[in-house]
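Budget justification note: compute hours in this period were largely spent on complex prediction jobs such as the one shown. Inputs:
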Amino acid sequence: MEISIEHLNKNYGKQNVLKDISLHIPIGMYGMLGENGAGKTTLMRILATLSEPTTGMVEINGIDIKRKKEIRKIIGYLPQEFSIYPNMTVYSALDYLGILTELPNNIRKRRINELLKQVNLEHEKNKRFKNLSGGMKRRFGIAQALLNDPKILIIDEPTAGLDPEERLRFYNLLSELAVERIILLSTHIASDIEATCSKAAVLSSGTVVFEGQIEKLLQLGNGKVYTTTILQNELNQFKQKYRVISIYQNGINVSCHFLSNAAPKKEWVSCQPTIEDSYMYLLSSFKQEVE
Amino acid sequence: MLFIKELKKICFSFIYVLFIGLLLFSWHENFYGVTTKEITGSQGNEVSISSGLTGGSILEKPEKNKESYGMKNKEVPDKIMCGGTDKLIMEYLANSYATYPFSYYKEVVLNENEQKEILNIIKEITGLNEQQINHLPDDYFPAVNGNVIHFGSNGTQSENGAFTFEMGNEEQPTENTDYTKQFVAQVSYEEFQELMKKAESIIGTGSNYSMENLLQYYGLAEMTYEEAMNEYEKTIYDDKVSAAFARLFCDYMTRDLGLYPVFLVVIFWLKDRRNRMNELIDCKQIGTTKLITIRFLAMLAAVLLPITILSFESLIPLIEFSAETGIAIDVFAFLKYIVWWLLPTAMIVTSSGMFLTILTSMPIAILVQFVWWFIDTSLTALSGDTKIFTLMIRHNLLRGSELIKQDFNLICLNRGLFVILSLILIALSVVVYNKKRGGKLNYDFFLQKHFGFFKDRFTAHIQK
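Corresponding output:
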């Protein structure tokens, strides 16, 4: 089982949103990382049959993406922004979507109860959707995407607006689900990918700038990340020279966590890069190349 | 199962409650109690207004030697010329002419030259000069002259203040009648018709002087016993009683069905997008044809269900009437007329609303339907005026089954055409929805770019 994307391009009018994307996504959790506007949602929508490629080939489990009816049978999709008729209860909303998924009556009822248990919404099943918290809504989103027990689960920016506890709970849930299926997770938060995925791709301005194991992504930042302490009034000048990732105020001094390709100075302390650091390094290198 | 879900979604929405409210109001104002009144009227009690004008309950068997059997429409040239001229003189003297260009009242005031032209028409018809026209004797026209009533010497007022007029027994003018004392047309009926056409062109469309209106207002004649018996037999045997009520019921309901369902349809179809649910639905397995068809059928059921229920208010008393009198009724008459007359209207309103909403993702269908409904209402007479594209079949009468027989083929063609058109619109909706579902035809950006200005202005205006 695999998602195979070859030379995929997507244009909106004259704007080229996805540029010659080629990816092979195997079973397991796969991260799609990129800043806002990088083209992640467009790619997700194409895989969810809600948009069509301008050129290129996409196959899911050997089925051409143009065979939408067949593709819809094997995918589950959680869009970035979704809602439900506000007065519908959790159960009836799942039941409605289950009917649209064309699950037979007896299977549907059983499946809904299983899913409610799995996403820990059993006690909320009679609550109206509008009364659910953000985390509950996301878990509902996962439940509805799993109604047809899909081989491919496509999840677009699932943790937007969730507090850290909900995020953790959500990723634990995804990890449980990642057995015998592909979970494609799109996010702009690199640490989310590190916590859950073994492989990832990074998109920037519609182009794949990285594809591979998470460890490989982490290594990209090796020897490029430093910390140093400077005076507060030197900060602006420092920012113009280096890509500052974070700063910590310390009296009149400022401790800077930054990226640099240049040879280190003696006052710089080399750091073990986090996934965020490597990701930032990757993006800034790509942008420099483009410029 | 999906059908039930969609039906529930519609029926438990606020807009549906409004729809039911409007439907109930319209039904209560127009049709509620008509059947019961006709039944009790046949037993000598008060009858409905429409039957009152035509001589009594349609269910009352005429008896020989009765004083009056009611009125019927008949082209009696003398009466039409008398009534039309009476009305024209009244309006000329007040220089205030009533017109109904789109079924709504509009007063027309003529200039001096136009008034002179009208005066010449009156002079030609009556043979009187301007002075005489300005000072007509009180009894120049009959006290009750079609829809014109003169509160002159012929009217008597009772103690409780009610006026009584004797109808139809005025002396008919003879060759010796003095045309300056009593109306005697000085032109032939054909010439009169030409003069009325001229008056209509001066005053404007929808005046009182079109032949249709002249016939309706002044072409009334007393029915004979045989004619009344014939009408009664048509009701009892041809219409089997219930068809007469079913037609009137459908006449009132069709005006509601010609417009209100579009609000339901538009809000229902925009609901997915407004609730950001469209992507969840679109990526599910269900086929587009199945989804659109089931939603369409659910909408149609939601629209016709209350109408079918309301028809029982008439049907149940009729069943009781049948049991009491032994007169056979057609129990399925309401159902037949709902399917034959109302279903095609409901189908076309629902399918066109659905198609336009899916196509544009905007509530444009409401505007389109309102314009269509308004034009259709304005151009269609209350009875016997079905054309090939008439949206709402009108028959604002309990009697008059001959009008239906006369137009039967046209009505069938009209209804069939709307059914075919709505099936085409459903098929087009499937095609468009399927394209949009797959990411094509998404020109919402275009619409927002070019028409968003109006939406923003409107929103800003509301927020103020």
